[in-house]
RNA sequence: GGCGAGGUAGCAAAGUGGUAAUGCGCUGGUCUGCAAAACCGGUAUUCGCGGGUUCGAUUCCCGCCCUCGCCUCCA
Protein backbone atom coordinates (compact mmCIF):
# COMPACT_ATOMS: atom_id res chain seq x y z
CA UNK A 1 0.00 0.00 0.00
CA UNK A 2 1.45 3.31 -1.05
CA UNK A 3 1.47 6.07 1.48
CA UNK A 4 0.88 9.76 1.28
CA UNK A 5 3.95 11.96 1.05
CA UNK A 6 3.57 15.53 2.12
CA UNK A 7 5.66 18.66 2.05
CA UNK A 8 6.58 19.43 5.64
CA UNK A 9 7.01 23.12 6.41
CA UNK A 10 9.38 22.33 9.26
CA UNK A 11 11.90 20.21 7.36
CA UNK A 12 11.02 21.72 3.97
CA UNK A 13 11.14 18.24 2.65
CA UNK A 14 8.65 15.72 1.38
CA UNK A 15 7.89 13.30 4.20
CA UNK A 16 6.08 10.00 4.35
CA UNK A 17 2.96 10.38 6.42
CA UNK A 18 2.20 7.66 8.96
CA UNK A 19 1.07 7.50 12.58
CA UNK A 20 3.99 7.43 14.94
CA UNK A 21 2.15 5.17 17.36
CA UNK A 22 1.27 2.78 14.55
CA UNK A 23 -2.44 3.16 15.19
CA UNK A 24 -3.92 6.58 14.74
CA UNK A 25 -2.62 9.56 12.89
CA UNK A 26 -3.05 12.36 15.40
CA UNK A 27 -3.33 15.85 14.00
CA UNK A 28 -4.41 19.33 15.00
CA UNK A 29 -5.86 22.04 12.81
CA UNK A 30 -6.17 25.68 13.78
CA UNK A 31 -9.91 26.26 13.62
CA UNK A 32 -12.10 29.28 13.10
CA UNK A 33 -12.38 32.37 15.27
CA UNK A 34 -16.12 32.56 15.72
CA UNK A 35 -16.98 36.24 15.52
CA UNK A 36 -18.72 36.24 12.14
CA UNK A 37 -19.31 34.01 9.12
CA UNK A 38 -16.21 32.30 7.80
CA UNK A 39 -15.20 33.41 4.32
CA UNK A 40 -14.25 31.16 1.44
CA UNK A 41 -10.55 31.72 2.10
CA UNK A 42 -11.00 30.28 5.57
CA UNK A 43 -12.79 27.39 3.97
CA UNK A 44 -9.96 26.75 1.58
CA UNK A 45 -7.82 25.88 4.58
CA UNK A 46 -10.43 23.61 6.13
CA UNK A 47 -11.16 21.94 2.80
CA UNK A 48 -7.49 21.26 2.17
CA UNK A 49 -7.28 19.72 5.63
CA UNK A 50 -10.38 17.71 4.83
CA UNK A 51 -8.80 16.44 1.61
CA UNK A 52 -5.70 15.53 3.57
CA UNK A 53 -7.69 13.57 6.12
CA UNK A 54 -9.72 11.77 3.48
CA UNK A 55 -6.63 10.67 1.60
CA UNK A 56 -5.07 9.29 4.77
CA UNK A 57 -8.24 7.51 5.81
CA UNK A 58 -8.87 6.13 2.33
CA UNK A 59 -5.43 4.63 2.40
CA UNK A 60 -6.51 2.70 5.46
CA UNK A 61 -5.05 4.77 8.30
CA UNK A 62 -7.24 5.79 11.22
CA UNK A 63 -7.03 9.37 12.38
CA UNK A 64 -7.64 11.48 15.44
CA UNK A 65 -8.50 14.92 14.15
CA UNK A 66 -8.72 17.87 16.53
CA UNK A 67 -9.82 21.29 15.36
CA UNK A 68 -10.34 24.05 17.87
CA UNK A 69 -12.85 26.84 18.10
CA UNK A 70 -11.28 30.16 19.05
CA UNK A 71 -13.94 31.80 21.17
CA UNK A 72 -11.95 34.25 23.22
CA UNK A 73 -9.75 36.93 21.73
CA UNK A 74 -9.92 40.63 20.95
CA UNK A 75 -12.35 40.19 18.08
CA UNK A 76 -14.82 37.84 19.75
CA UNK A 77 -14.93 40.02 22.86
CA UNK A 78 -15.33 43.22 20.92
CA UNK A 79 -18.07 41.89 18.65
CA UNK A 80 -19.91 40.14 21.47
CA UNK A 81 -20.09 43.40 23.37
CA UNK A 82 -21.39 45.21 20.32
CA UNK A 83 -24.09 42.58 19.94
CA UNK A 84 -25.06 42.85 23.62
CA UNK A 85 -24.90 39.08 23.96
CA UNK A 86 -22.65 37.29 26.40
CA UNK A 87 -19.43 36.01 24.89
CA UNK A 88 -20.73 32.44 25.25
CA UNK A 89 -24.02 33.14 23.52
CA UNK A 90 -22.39 35.19 20.82
CA UNK A 91 -19.73 32.64 19.92
CA UNK A 92 -22.22 29.76 20.13
CA UNK A 93 -24.23 31.38 17.35
CA UNK A 94 -21.28 31.72 15.03
CA UNK A 95 -20.03 28.26 15.90
CA UNK A 96 -23.39 26.92 14.82
CA UNK A 97 -23.18 28.82 11.57
CA UNK A 98 -19.71 27.43 10.98
CA UNK A 99 -21.01 23.91 11.50
CA UNK A 100 -23.79 24.46 9.00
CA UNK A 101 -21.38 25.77 6.39
CA UNK A 102 -18.98 22.91 7.04
CA UNK A 103 -21.79 20.45 6.54
CA UNK A 104 -22.82 22.00 3.26
CA UNK A 105 -19.24 21.77 2.12
CA UNK A 106 -19.25 18.07 2.96
CA UNK A 107 -16.43 18.41 5.46
CA UNK A 108 -15.85 15.51 7.83
CA UNK A 109 -16.41 16.55 11.43
CA UNK A 110 -13.26 16.60 13.49
CA UNK A 111 -13.25 13.94 16.18
CA UNK A 112 -12.81 16.63 18.82
CA UNK A 113 -13.59 20.30 18.67
CA UNK A 114 -12.37 21.92 21.88
CA UNK A 115 -12.79 25.60 22.55
CA UNK A 116 -10.46 28.03 24.26
CA UNK A 117 -12.84 29.16 27.00
CA UNK A 118 -13.42 25.58 28.01
CA UNK A 119 -9.71 25.13 28.59
CA UNK A 120 -8.66 28.06 30.74
CA UNK A 121 -7.25 25.83 33.53
CA UNK A 122 -5.09 23.89 31.07
CA UNK A 123 -3.74 27.13 29.70
CA UNK A 124 -3.01 28.50 33.16
CA UNK A 125 -1.14 25.31 34.01
CA UNK A 126 0.94 25.63 30.91
CA UNK A 127 1.94 29.16 31.87
CA UNK A 128 2.87 28.00 35.37
CA UNK A 129 5.07 25.36 33.88
CA UNK A 130 6.77 27.88 31.64
CA UNK A 131 7.42 30.22 34.54
CA UNK A 132 8.92 27.34 36.54
CA UNK A 133 11.17 26.51 33.64
CA UNK A 134 12.31 30.10 33.37
CA UNK A 135 10.73 30.65 29.96
CA UNK A 136 8.09 33.12 31.06
CA UNK A 137 7.82 36.08 33.38
CA UNK A 138 5.02 38.08 34.89
CA UNK A 139 5.11 41.77 34.09
CA UNK A 140 4.17 44.59 36.38
CA UNK A 141 0.62 44.92 35.09
CA UNK A 142 -0.52 41.34 35.73
CA UNK A 143 0.27 39.98 32.28
CA UNK A 144 2.68 37.13 31.61
CA UNK A 145 5.08 37.02 28.68
CA UNK A 146 7.08 34.31 27.03
CA UNK A 147 10.76 35.12 26.99
CA UNK A 148 12.03 34.47 23.50
CA UNK A 149 15.65 34.77 24.48
CA UNK A 150 15.20 31.95 27.01
CA UNK A 151 14.41 29.53 24.22
CA UNK A 152 17.33 29.08 21.88
CA UNK A 153 15.42 27.22 19.17
CA UNK A 154 13.03 30.09 18.60
CA UNK A 155 12.36 30.62 14.91
CA UNK A 156 13.01 27.10 13.67
CA UNK A 157 9.78 26.82 11.72
CA UNK A 158 10.11 30.04 9.76
CA UNK A 159 13.87 30.30 10.15
CA UNK A 160 13.65 33.73 11.50
CA UNK A 161 16.67 34.96 13.32
CA UNK A 162 16.00 36.80 16.56
CA UNK A 163 18.15 39.67 15.40
CA UNK A 164 16.12 40.08 12.20
CA UNK A 165 12.96 39.83 14.18
CA UNK A 166 13.97 42.64 16.46
CA UNK A 167 15.22 44.80 13.65
CA UNK A 168 12.06 44.29 11.66
CA UNK A 169 9.84 44.86 14.64
CA UNK A 170 11.47 48.16 15.44
CA UNK A 171 8.86 50.36 13.86
CA UNK A 172 5.76 48.70 15.19
CA UNK A 173 6.80 47.37 18.55
CA UNK A 174 6.01 50.41 20.60
CA UNK A 175 2.30 49.88 20.97
CA UNK A 176 1.13 51.42 24.18
CA UNK A 177 -0.14 48.16 25.61
CA UNK A 178 3.05 46.24 25.01
CA UNK A 179 5.43 48.34 27.06
CA UNK A 180 5.71 45.79 29.80
CA UNK A 181 7.67 43.37 27.65
CA UNK A 182 11.35 42.87 28.39
CA UNK A 183 12.03 42.33 24.76
CA UNK A 184 10.09 43.44 21.69
CA UNK A 185 9.66 39.94 20.32
CA UNK A 186 8.36 38.42 23.54
CA UNK A 187 4.71 37.53 23.24
CA UNK A 188 1.88 37.50 25.71
CA UNK A 189 0.74 34.30 27.43
CA UNK A 190 -1.69 35.89 29.85
CA UNK A 191 -3.33 39.24 29.20
CA UNK A 192 -4.19 41.25 32.27
CA UNK A 193 -7.82 42.28 32.54
CA UNK A 194 -8.69 45.55 30.87
CA UNK A 195 -11.83 47.63 31.35
CA UNK A 196 -12.89 47.08 27.74
CA UNK A 197 -12.99 43.32 28.31
CA UNK A 198 -16.14 43.76 30.40
CA UNK A 199 -17.13 40.54 32.13
CA UNK A 200 -14.78 38.47 30.04
CA UNK A 201 -11.99 37.65 32.43
CA UNK A 202 -10.82 34.67 34.44
CA UNK A 203 -8.85 34.30 37.65
CA UNK A 204 -5.25 33.23 37.62
CA UNK A 205 -2.22 33.30 39.93
CA UNK A 206 -1.27 36.59 38.22
CA UNK A 207 -4.64 38.21 38.66
CA UNK A 208 -7.71 38.48 36.45
CA UNK A 209 -7.29 38.33 32.74
CA UNK A 210 -7.46 36.00 29.78
CA UNK A 211 -5.11 33.72 27.88
CA UNK A 212 -3.05 34.97 24.97
CA UNK A 213 -4.08 33.76 21.57
CA UNK A 214 -1.21 31.39 20.83
CA UNK A 215 -1.65 29.47 24.06
CA UNK A 216 -4.91 27.67 23.39
CA UNK A 217 -3.61 25.56 20.55
CA UNK A 218 -0.63 24.40 22.58
CA UNK A 219 -2.72 23.54 25.61
CA UNK A 220 -5.51 21.76 23.74
CA UNK A 221 -3.25 20.07 21.23
CA UNK A 222 -1.17 18.55 23.97
CA UNK A 223 -4.19 17.66 26.07
CA UNK A 224 -5.95 15.68 23.37
CA UNK A 225 -3.12 14.49 21.17
CA UNK A 226 -0.21 14.18 23.56
CA UNK A 227 2.90 16.26 24.06
CA UNK A 228 4.16 15.09 20.69
CA UNK A 229 1.74 14.43 17.90
CA UNK A 230 1.92 13.71 14.17
CA UNK A 231 0.95 16.88 12.40
CA UNK A 232 -0.27 20.42 12.86
CA UNK A 233 -2.07 22.31 10.09
CA UNK A 234 -3.10 25.85 9.27
CA UNK A 235 -2.92 28.61 6.68
CA UNK A 236 0.49 29.99 5.66
CA UNK A 237 -0.17 33.23 7.45
CA UNK A 238 -0.16 31.34 10.72
CA UNK A 239 3.45 30.21 10.35
CA UNK A 240 4.57 33.39 11.96
CA UNK A 241 4.05 34.27 14.67
CA UNK A 242 1.29 31.87 15.72
CA UNK A 243 2.87 28.51 14.98
CA UNK A 244 6.33 29.67 15.82
CA UNK A 245 5.03 30.73 19.21
CA UNK A 246 3.12 27.52 19.71
CA UNK A 247 6.29 25.56 19.14
CA UNK A 248 8.22 27.74 21.56
CA UNK A 249 5.62 27.46 24.33
CA UNK A 250 5.06 23.78 23.91
CA UNK A 251 8.61 22.61 23.49
CA UNK A 252 9.92 24.90 26.22
CA UNK A 253 7.37 23.46 28.61
CA UNK A 254 7.83 19.76 27.77
CA UNK A 255 11.34 19.54 26.38
CA UNK A 256 9.83 17.37 23.63
CA UNK A 257 9.07 17.93 20.02
CA UNK A 258 5.58 19.40 19.64
CA UNK A 259 4.28 18.44 16.18
CA UNK A 260 6.33 16.08 14.02
CA UNK A 261 5.13 17.71 10.80
CA UNK A 262 3.67 21.05 9.82
CA UNK A 263 1.19 21.39 7.00
CA UNK A 264 0.37 24.82 5.59
CA UNK A 265 -1.95 25.78 2.76
CA UNK A 266 -1.52 28.82 0.59
CA UNK A 267 -4.08 31.56 0.45
CA UNK A 268 -7.08 31.99 -1.73
CA UNK A 269 -6.87 35.19 -3.72
CA UNK A 270 -9.68 37.21 -5.21
CA UNK A 271 -9.00 39.63 -8.04
CA UNK A 272 -5.31 38.96 -7.67
CA UNK A 273 -4.98 39.96 -4.06
CA UNK A 274 -5.64 38.56 -0.67
CA UNK A 275 -9.22 38.62 0.46
CA UNK A 276 -9.97 41.16 3.09
CA UNK A 277 -12.87 43.13 4.38
CA UNK A 278 -11.18 46.40 3.59
CA UNK A 279 -10.78 45.51 -0.09
CA UNK A 280 -14.41 44.41 -0.26
CA UNK A 281 -13.50 41.17 -2.02
CA UNK A 282 -14.56 38.83 0.71
CA UNK A 283 -17.12 36.12 0.00
CA UNK A 284 -19.02 33.92 2.41
CA UNK A 285 -20.89 30.77 1.52
CA UNK A 286 -24.09 32.79 1.46
CA UNK A 287 -22.60 35.12 -1.15
CA UNK A 288 -21.72 32.09 -3.27
CA UNK A 289 -25.30 30.87 -3.09
CA UNK A 290 -26.57 34.31 -3.96
CA UNK A 291 -24.48 34.17 -7.11
CA UNK A 292 -26.19 30.93 -8.07
CA UNK A 293 -23.50 28.43 -7.11
CA UNK A 294 -23.61 25.54 -4.70
CA UNK A 295 -21.34 24.58 -1.84
CA UNK A 296 -20.40 21.46 -3.81
CA UNK A 297 -19.22 23.60 -6.70
CA UNK A 298 -17.23 25.78 -4.34
CA UNK A 299 -15.63 22.72 -2.85
CA UNK A 300 -14.61 21.40 -6.26
CA UNK A 301 -13.24 24.77 -7.22
CA UNK A 302 -11.21 25.40 -4.07
CA UNK A 303 -9.68 21.93 -4.22
CA UNK A 304 -8.86 22.02 -7.92
CA UNK A 305 -5.60 23.89 -7.39
CA UNK A 306 -2.64 22.56 -5.49
CA UNK A 307 -2.76 23.50 -1.85
CA UNK A 308 0.71 25.06 -1.85
CA UNK A 309 -0.14 27.49 -4.62
CA UNK A 310 -2.18 30.60 -4.32
CA UNK A 311 -5.34 30.25 -6.30
CA UNK A 312 -7.40 33.05 -7.64
CA UNK A 313 -11.09 32.71 -6.98
CA UNK A 314 -13.35 33.58 -9.88
CA UNK A 315 -16.79 32.75 -11.12
CA UNK A 316 -15.27 31.42 -14.33
CA UNK A 317 -13.56 28.91 -12.18
CA UNK A 318 -16.86 28.12 -10.48
CA UNK A 319 -18.44 27.52 -13.87
CA UNK A 320 -15.71 25.11 -14.76
CA UNK A 321 -16.33 23.32 -11.48
CA UNK A 322 -20.01 23.03 -12.31
CA UNK A 323 -19.34 21.56 -15.73
CA UNK A 324 -16.78 19.06 -14.49
CA UNK A 325 -18.96 17.93 -11.62
CA UNK A 326 -21.82 17.32 -14.04
CA UNK A 327 -19.52 15.36 -16.28
CA UNK A 328 -18.38 13.14 -13.43
CA UNK A 329 -21.92 12.76 -12.16
CA UNK A 330 -23.23 11.63 -15.49
CA UNK A 331 -20.39 9.15 -15.80
CA UNK A 332 -21.28 7.70 -12.41
CA UNK A 333 -24.90 7.50 -13.48
CA UNK A 334 -24.01 5.76 -16.73
CA UNK A 335 -21.95 3.25 -14.84
CA UNK A 336 -25.17 2.00 -13.33
CA UNK A 337 -24.82 0.99 -9.72
CA UNK A 338 -24.22 3.58 -6.99
CA UNK A 339 -20.81 4.50 -5.65
CA UNK A 340 -19.43 2.49 -2.75
CA UNK A 341 -19.54 4.53 0.45
CA UNK A 342 -16.61 6.34 2.02
CA UNK A 343 -16.60 3.92 4.94
CA UNK A 344 -16.48 0.86 2.70
CA UNK A 345 -13.49 2.28 0.89
CA UNK A 346 -11.66 3.18 4.10
CA UNK A 347 -11.94 -0.45 5.11
CA UNK A 348 -10.60 -1.78 1.86
CA UNK A 349 -7.88 0.87 1.75
CA UNK A 350 -5.98 -1.02 4.41
CA UNK A 351 -5.84 -4.18 2.35
CA UNK A 352 -2.85 -4.81 0.18
CA UNK A 353 -4.88 -5.42 -2.94
CA UNK A 354 -6.54 -2.04 -3.12
CA UNK A 355 -7.05 -1.79 -6.84
CA UNK A 356 -8.22 1.38 -8.52
CA UNK A 357 -7.96 0.13 -12.07
CA UNK A 358 -7.78 3.02 -14.54
CA UNK A 359 -7.88 5.50 -11.67
CA UNK A 360 -4.68 4.30 -10.09
CA UNK A 361 -2.53 7.09 -11.50
CA UNK A 362 -5.01 9.73 -10.39
CA UNK A 363 -4.90 8.38 -6.86
CA UNK A 364 -1.12 8.23 -6.93
CA UNK A 365 -1.01 11.90 -7.86
CA UNK A 366 -2.91 12.63 -4.67
CA UNK A 367 -0.44 10.59 -2.69
CA UNK A 368 2.34 12.81 -4.00
CA UNK A 369 1.78 15.86 -1.84
CA UNK A 370 -1.93 16.05 -2.64
CA UNK A 371 -1.27 17.08 -6.21
CA UNK A 372 -4.86 17.83 -7.09
CA UNK A 373 -4.32 19.31 -10.58
CA UNK A 374 -2.30 16.26 -11.60
CA UNK A 375 -4.92 13.99 -10.06
CA UNK A 376 -7.67 15.72 -12.01
CA UNK A 377 -5.62 15.47 -15.19
CA UNK A 378 -5.16 11.76 -14.71
CA UNK A 379 -8.79 11.40 -13.77
CA UNK A 380 -9.97 12.85 -17.05
CA UNK A 381 -7.49 10.72 -18.95
CA UNK A 382 -9.07 7.69 -17.29
CA UNK A 383 -12.59 8.90 -17.84
CA UNK A 384 -12.41 9.59 -21.54
CA UNK A 385 -12.20 6.01 -22.86
CA UNK A 386 -14.93 5.01 -20.43
CA UNK A 387 -17.21 7.70 -21.73
CA UNK A 388 -16.57 6.53 -25.23
CA UNK A 389 -17.34 2.91 -24.48
CA UNK A 390 -20.47 3.87 -22.62
CA UNK A 391 -21.62 6.03 -25.51
CA UNK A 392 -21.13 3.10 -27.85
CA UNK A 393 -23.07 0.83 -25.50
CA UNK A 394 -22.33 -2.69 -24.31
CA UNK A 395 -19.91 -2.31 -21.46
CA UNK A 396 -19.61 -5.49 -19.37
CA UNK A 397 -20.97 -5.19 -15.86
CA UNK A 398 -17.60 -6.22 -14.41
CA UNK A 399 -15.87 -3.36 -16.14
CA UNK A 400 -18.48 -0.94 -14.93
CA UNK A 401 -18.21 -2.15 -11.39
CA UNK A 402 -14.43 -1.97 -11.35
CA UNK A 403 -14.48 1.53 -12.79
CA UNK A 404 -17.01 2.66 -10.24
CA UNK A 405 -14.87 1.27 -7.44
CA UNK A 406 -11.75 3.10 -8.58
CA UNK A 407 -13.58 6.31 -9.34
CA UNK A 408 -15.14 6.24 -5.90
CA UNK A 409 -11.76 6.70 -4.27
CA UNK A 410 -11.28 9.95 -6.11
CA UNK A 411 -14.83 11.15 -5.60
CA UNK A 412 -14.56 10.53 -1.87
CA UNK A 413 -11.02 11.85 -1.55
CA UNK A 414 -12.09 15.15 -3.06
CA UNK A 415 -15.35 14.91 -1.17
CA UNK A 416 -17.35 15.78 -4.24
CA UNK A 417 -21.08 15.87 -3.87
CA UNK A 418 -22.28 15.00 -7.34
CA UNK A 419 -25.31 16.77 -8.74
CA UNK A 420 -28.36 14.69 -9.50
CA UNK A 421 -28.58 13.93 -13.18
CA UNK A 422 -32.26 13.41 -13.48
CA UNK A 423 -34.57 12.92 -16.37
CA UNK A 424 -38.02 11.65 -15.47
CA UNK A 425 -38.11 13.13 -12.02
CA UNK A 426 -37.10 16.52 -13.23
CA UNK A 427 -39.79 16.47 -15.86
CA UNK A 428 -42.29 16.71 -13.03
CA UNK A 429 -40.89 20.10 -12.10
CA UNK A 430 -41.23 21.55 -15.57
CA UNK A 431 -43.86 24.30 -15.59
CA UNK A 432 -46.99 23.36 -17.52
CA UNK A 433 -46.66 26.11 -20.08
CA UNK A 434 -43.13 24.97 -20.91
CA UNK A 435 -44.29 21.37 -21.24
CA UNK A 436 -47.03 22.59 -23.48
CA UNK A 437 -44.63 24.52 -25.72
CA UNK A 438 -42.30 21.55 -25.92
CA UNK A 439 -45.11 19.20 -26.82
CA UNK A 440 -46.40 21.50 -29.56
CA UNK A 441 -42.89 21.84 -30.88
CA UNK A 442 -42.51 18.07 -31.01
CA UNK A 443 -45.68 17.80 -33.03
CA UNK A 444 -44.60 20.57 -35.40
CA UNK A 445 -41.30 18.83 -35.82
CA UNK A 446 -42.96 15.55 -36.64
CA UNK A 447 -45.02 17.34 -39.24
CA UNK A 448 -41.80 18.82 -40.60
CA UNK A 449 -43.01 22.33 -39.97
CA UNK A 450 -39.48 23.49 -39.26
CA UNK A 451 -40.29 27.18 -38.92
CA UNK A 452 -42.93 26.60 -36.28
CA UNK A 453 -40.81 23.96 -34.59
CA UNK A 454 -37.83 26.29 -34.31
CA UNK A 455 -40.00 29.14 -33.10
CA UNK A 456 -41.41 26.98 -30.31
CA UNK A 457 -37.96 25.70 -29.39
CA UNK A 458 -36.75 29.29 -29.02
CA UNK A 459 -39.75 29.99 -26.83
CA UNK A 460 -38.80 27.07 -24.59
CA UNK A 461 -35.22 28.30 -24.42
CA UNK A 462 -36.34 31.76 -23.44
CA UNK A 463 -38.21 30.14 -20.56
CA UNK A 464 -34.89 28.78 -19.34
CA UNK A 465 -35.18 25.19 -20.57
CA UNK A 466 -33.26 23.16 -23.10
CA UNK A 467 -34.72 20.48 -25.35
CA UNK A 468 -32.65 17.39 -25.91
CA UNK A 469 -33.99 15.30 -28.77
CA UNK A 470 -33.52 11.60 -29.18
CA UNK A 471 -34.84 9.26 -31.84
CA UNK A 472 -38.28 8.79 -30.44
CA UNK A 473 -38.80 11.61 -28.01
CA UNK A 474 -37.22 14.47 -26.15
CA UNK A 475 -36.21 15.57 -22.69
CA UNK A 476 -36.33 18.93 -21.00
CA UNK A 477 -33.51 20.24 -18.88
CA UNK A 478 -33.01 23.55 -17.20
CA UNK A 479 -30.41 25.57 -19.07
C1' G B 1 15.37 45.64 4.81
C1' G B 2 14.58 40.08 6.26
C1' C B 3 11.96 35.45 4.95
C1' G B 4 8.95 32.84 1.35
C1' A B 5 5.88 31.59 -3.18
C1' G B 6 5.36 32.21 -8.30
C1' G B 7 5.85 33.77 -13.73
C1' U B 8 3.98 27.46 -19.02
C1' A B 9 -1.46 28.22 -24.83
C1' G B 10 -7.50 32.98 -24.58
C1' C B 11 -8.22 31.44 -19.20
C1' A B 12 -6.98 27.71 -15.42
C1' A B 13 -3.04 24.34 -14.40
C1' A B 14 0.54 19.74 -14.08
C1' G B 15 5.27 18.27 -15.53
C1' U B 16 10.29 16.42 -17.06
C1' G B 17 17.77 17.03 -18.66
C1' G B 18 15.88 14.61 -24.60
C1' U B 19 12.13 18.23 -27.59
C1' A B 20 5.09 20.27 -23.50
C1' A B 21 -0.59 16.22 -19.02
C1' U B 22 -5.38 17.87 -18.19
C1' G B 23 -9.93 21.10 -17.65
C1' C B 24 -12.67 25.32 -19.49
C1' G B 25 -13.02 28.13 -23.95
C1' C B 26 -12.57 28.31 -29.13
C1' U B 27 -12.75 25.50 -33.67
C1' G B 28 -13.56 21.32 -37.54
C1' G B 29 -16.32 16.63 -37.94
C1' U B 30 -20.09 12.57 -36.94
C1' C B 31 -25.27 12.71 -35.68
C1' U B 32 -29.57 16.09 -36.74
C1' G B 33 -34.29 19.15 -41.27
C1' C B 34 -31.22 22.81 -38.48
C1' A B 35 -29.80 22.89 -33.50
C1' A B 36 -28.99 21.09 -28.46
C1' A B 37 -26.87 16.72 -26.13
C1' A B 38 -23.33 12.95 -27.01
C1' C B 39 -18.93 11.16 -29.30
C1' C B 40 -14.37 11.96 -32.60
C1' G B 41 -10.43 15.50 -33.98
C1' G B 42 -7.68 20.40 -33.94
C1' U B 43 -5.95 24.13 -30.86
C1' A B 44 1.96 26.46 -26.97
C1' U B 45 8.19 24.65 -32.78
C1' U B 46 7.27 26.68 -27.13
C1' C B 47 7.51 27.19 -21.21
C1' G B 48 9.08 35.96 -17.97
C1' C B 49 14.09 38.16 -20.08
C1' G B 50 19.53 37.67 -20.96
C1' G B 51 23.71 34.73 -20.40
C1' G B 52 26.22 29.89 -18.94
C1' U B 53 26.85 24.32 -18.27
C1' U B 54 25.45 20.20 -21.72
C1' C B 55 25.39 16.38 -27.59
C1' G B 56 20.71 18.47 -25.86
C1' A B 57 17.27 22.91 -20.89
C1' U B 58 11.02 24.79 -20.10
C1' U B 59 13.47 21.54 -16.59
C1' C B 60 20.53 22.70 -13.74
C1' C B 61 23.72 27.42 -12.67
C1' C B 62 24.32 33.03 -12.72
C1' G B 63 22.23 37.84 -13.47
C1' C B 64 17.85 40.78 -14.46
C1' C B 65 12.52 42.09 -14.81
C1' C B 66 7.56 41.37 -12.96
C1' U B 67 3.54 39.54 -9.57
C1' C B 68 2.06 37.99 -4.79
C1' G B 69 2.38 36.64 0.50
C1' C B 70 4.48 36.95 5.58
C1' C B 71 7.46 39.98 9.04
C1' U B 72 0.99 43.72 13.24
C1' C B 73 -4.83 40.46 13.79
C1' C B 74 -5.41 36.83 9.84
C1' A B 75 -6.98 30.35 6.79
Task: Outline the secondary-structure elements.
Blueprint: E1 5-8, E2 13-16, E3 24-29, H1 40-58, E4 62-67, H2 74-83, H3 87-104, H4 120-132, E5 136-138, E6 144-146, H5 162-169, E7 187-192, E8 209-211, H6 215-225, E9 229-235, H7 239-254, E10 259-265, E11 268-270, E12 273-274, H8 285-290, H9 295-302, E13 311-313, H10 315-334, H11 342-349, H12 360-367, H13 372-392, H14 397-414, H15 424-427, H16 432-446, H17 450-462, E14 465-470, E15 473-478
Parallel strand pairs: 3-4, 3-9, 9-10, 11-13
Antiparallel strand pairs: 1-2, 5-6, 6-7, 7-8, 11-12, 14-15
Helix pairs in contact: 1-14, 2-3, 4-6, 6-7, 9-10, 12-13, 16-17
This protein binds one RNA strand of 75 nucleotides through α1, α5, α7, β12 and α10.
| Strand residues, percent | 5-15%
The biggest beta sheet, please? 4 strands, parallel
Quote the average pLDDT.
89
Gross morphology? elongated
CATH class of the largest domain: Alpha Beta
Q: What percentage of residues falls in helices of 4 or more residues?
A: 40-55%
Amino acid sequence: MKRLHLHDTLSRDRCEIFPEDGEKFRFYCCGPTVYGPAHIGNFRAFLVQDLFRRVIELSGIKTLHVRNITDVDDKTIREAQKSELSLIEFTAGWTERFHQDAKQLNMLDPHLEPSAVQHIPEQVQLIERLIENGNAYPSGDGSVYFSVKSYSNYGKLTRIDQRDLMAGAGETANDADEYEKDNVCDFVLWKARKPEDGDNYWDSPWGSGRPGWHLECSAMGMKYLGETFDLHAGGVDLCFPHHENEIAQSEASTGKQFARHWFHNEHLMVDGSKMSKSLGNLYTLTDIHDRGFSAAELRYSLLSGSYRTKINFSFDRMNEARINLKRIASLVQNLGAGLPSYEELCDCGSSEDMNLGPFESSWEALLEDLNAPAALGELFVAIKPLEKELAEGDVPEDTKKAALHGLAFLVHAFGWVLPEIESEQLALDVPDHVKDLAEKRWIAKKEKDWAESDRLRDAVISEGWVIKDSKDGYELEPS
